[in-house]
Amino acid sequence: MTGALDGLDEHARRLSASSLSSLIAGDPARATDFALRVGPLYANFARQHYDRAALESLFAMATRADLLGAMRRMFDGESVNATEGRAALHAALRGDCGSTSTARSARAAALDALARMRALVDALAASDVTDIISVGIGGSDLGPRLVVDALAQPNARFRVHFLSNLDGHAAQRLLARLDPRRTAAVIVSKSFGTRETLLNGGIVRAWLGDDARLHAVSAAPQRVAEFGIAAERSLPMWDWVGGRYSLWSTVGFPVALALGSTAFERLLAGAATLDAHAASAPLGDNLPVWHALTAIWNRNALGAATQAVLPYDQRLRLLPAHLQQLVMESLGKSVRIDGAAIGVDSVPVWWGGVGSDVQHSFFQALHQGTQVVPIDFIGVARPDHAHADNHATQLANLLAQSEALANGRSDDNPHRRHPGDRPSTLLLLDALTPETLGMLIALYEHSVYLQAVLWGINAFDQYGVELGKTLAERLLPVVEGQGEADDPVTRSLLAELARAR
Ligand code: F6P
After folding, report:
1. 360 among known catalytic residues
2. Do residues 76 and 329 touch, judged by C-beta distance below 8 A?
3. What is the DSSP letter of 243?
């Protein structure tokens, strides 16, 4: 291990001789000492496979890396996206934690756009539109899709649908159940150059047959105009907001339509609460810092190749998908900002699903498989349904799984033995509200950024997605029958496709 991460190996070696259950038994106070509360969001790290000495080294590492200074630099609009020479001011979309004129003018632009967004929501609410299609992909889709699904209300003014996939079946199936005369659409694309979104946007525009119900969200107004969407139905975006961090911007327009502008502003307020905590809490009490250090510990000290996120609440079923993009597009890098190799492993594969369903699919492997998978369990204390027995059983399952994975169970029969030592964090929301969901997502955003700082990488670029896109553009005419592919395997695959088509 190198650089800022020096010393973790030694703790890992020392702790490999102690089971997680023995660590907890030997220091029961960690059940409360390794826990933090930020208003309605509680986090417990007691079931992570570290002890106080290892944590001390982790926090010393956080001090050396000046994590709090790094947070400040991001909030103030410094060029933390160094490879693209840009700020990452998503926090300015939801609050005032930046103290520079750059952060203040971003905030002013965000408030101005929010007011315009509210006016567009009101105008649509006054029309006879019943359904909205949001066309976008990646960061222009996953965050709003998650929030709308999580907080959906039965009597909402609009039904909001999301169209992301390039596969034409997605558009075909969606449009088949909607009435074009009662539907409006919004094309969400920061670049307004994403092939998937422009193709689906074109399908939806043709199907609507009336550009007066077509809207856009983009940082490229010229391209929006060329596509034929009027400026008065377009909302701005900015290069200082990364796609996967853009939920809080006008990219949240579908959220405001589905849940109302006030609910959207409550989501922003929740995230701003977490921002204020991240900006001001000392290292040892700082939830994103704890979360990031735990991630680094599991990846670089314990060598975990994957990380699971398991919400025990049906409404959060899309959280793993959103976090996959947030975490893996941000941290899936092999070189540091200066171009040198990181020298240690960066992001593990993030994956997950919703409890209790997943207990009946992949939990066997979590309990007895050869790979140890660290887990973020997410629970909600107070449900919004009336099925008390279900909820009590759901909570019992959540607690039981975390306990069983950590402590295991000895048995003379090797098939029945549970090895234990499977670490997890429990994140608990008092209730699922716009505010708590905003806090939860912002927690992950800040944790991701802090992990990037510790690894010395840029969390805000995504050059890795470019090569495949460029090749697809080059192969499109070949698939359509013009020219030949350069690559022999691709040529042979094209021949097979031609045979089957
Ligand atoms: O997957 C690459 C990516 O650039 C994401 O970062 C982004 O959120 C997504 O494509 C969509 O981009 P756009 O909003 O420009 O259409």
Report:
1. yes
2. no
3. G
Q: Do residues 45 and 105 share a domain?
A: no
Q: How far is the CA of 136 from the centre of ligand 1 (A)?
A: 8
Residue with token string 């998978």: 373
C-alpha of residue 243 to centroid of ligand 1, in Å: 6
Asked whether residue 180 falls in the same domain as residue 242, the answer is yes
Instruction: Output the residue whose Cα is nearest ligand 1's atom 9.
Output: 138
Q: Which of 426, 424, 427, 431 is nearest to 380 (CA)?
A: 431
Q: pLDDT tens digits for 317-376?
A: 999 999 999 999 999 999 999 999 999 999 999 999 999 999 999 999 999 999 999 999
Global confidence as pTM:
0.97
CA of 141 to the centre of ligand 1 (A): 9
The conformation of residue 325, written as its DSSP 8-state character, comes to: I
- Residue 3 confidence (pLDDT): 60
Cβ < 6 Å from ligand 1: which residues?
137-140, 189-191, 194, 197, 243-244, 329, 462, 465
Distance CA 212, CA 181 (A): 11
Is the pLDDT assigned to residue 252 strictly greater than 70? Answer: yes
Domain with 358, as residue range(s), is 2-51+287-410+417-462
**CA separation for the pair 71, 315 (Å, rounded):** 30
- Burial environment of residue 291 by CB neighbours within 10 A (0 to 12, 13 to 18, 19 or more): buried
Same structural domain, 319 and 446: yes
Q: Is 445 a catalytic residue?
A: no
Walk across the sheet containing 214-218 and list its strands.
159-163, 131-135, 183-188, 214-218, 234-236
Residue 469 token pair: 């896109």
Q: Tokens at residue 286, please?
A: 């700082």
Q: What is the CATH number of the domain that holds 291?
A: 3.40.50.10490
190 is known as an active-site residue: no
Amino acid identity for residue 10 in this structure:
E
Q: How far is CA 423 from CA 349, 393, 397, 398, in A?
A: 16, 22, 16, 14
